[in-house]
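agent> Task received from the user: take the single chain below, predict its 3D structure, and emit structure tokens. No templates, no multimer pairing.
agent> Plan: (1) validate residues, (2) run structure prediction, (3) serialize to tokens, (4) report one or two observations.
agent> Step 1 OK, no nonstandard residues flagged.
tool_call: predict_structure(input=
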Amino acid sequence: MDKFDCIVIGAGPAGLSAALILGRARRKVAIIDNGTNRNRVTQESHGFLTRDGIKPQEFKNIAMKDLESYPSVFFTNDTVIEVNKEEQSDLFFINTSNNKSYRTEKILLATGIQEEFPLTQIRQYYGKSLFSCPYCDGWELRDKPLAVIAEKEEHIIHMTKLVFNWSKDLIVFTNGHQLSTTVRNDFEGKKIKIYTEGIKSLHGDLGNLESIELVSGENILRSGGFVVPSFYRPNKFAEQINCQVDENGGIITDGAGRTTVTGVYIAGETEKSGPSSLMLSAADGSRAAFSINMDLTLDRF
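)
tool_result: status=success, residues=301
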């Protein structure tokens, strides 16, 4: 079994950025990824300087091409199912669904997060006409008749105020949840209509939203909008190797990518337990890689 300096779990912008830094530092790195990155449903990615509007898969392909220049970096398409630490050797052992096993001195967790929506039907439109990040997709929906779909008042306030910068033709759908009088008055003062009735169905074609049908049968025309999902980590690798988490389930770090377990690092949306931009995730990956390389240097010097 080959031994790696670092294994990166997840080939999103955080994991790939970290692998690039470590490859340039002449570290032996394996990237394990199964292609379930959250932005794979998105038509275009925005806000990454020099790559604005790029398709997520093309972004990933370019990054992988960059890594080909560094012979100590390896990539495998596989799913990690178990991570363990051998206390006697201080090495980590990783097992995958393809019955492969790896051992490594350091691990970078960069598997990201996944969404859960208030309505399962949102999946049909997500990434095409319904989105969760106005900074990523607000420009493309500017001045269109938009919906904000959210259930918690604090989420509704935040998203509605934000989206209002891109379109004043805005309607809020709370899917059966009530809003305070203060919020109602604030929104009505901006001529933002609120529907607190439950949503029966979304209507559209090929991912393009056309209308939102309420339980009463009323149909409100909308051509797109923004939703507020809840987010979760899709695996328990951090818990498997006893990384400490906070009261909200976030993994505790030192601010430079190091977790509370020596040799385990984290970057990107996995660390935040919430959504992040491509650019910020890539920066997180670089920062974690600097920590990994410095720790390897000090271990061996």
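agent> Step 4: summary for the user.
The helical segments are 13-24, 56-67, 134-137, 153-163, 181-189, 237-240, 269-272, 278-300.
agent> Done.
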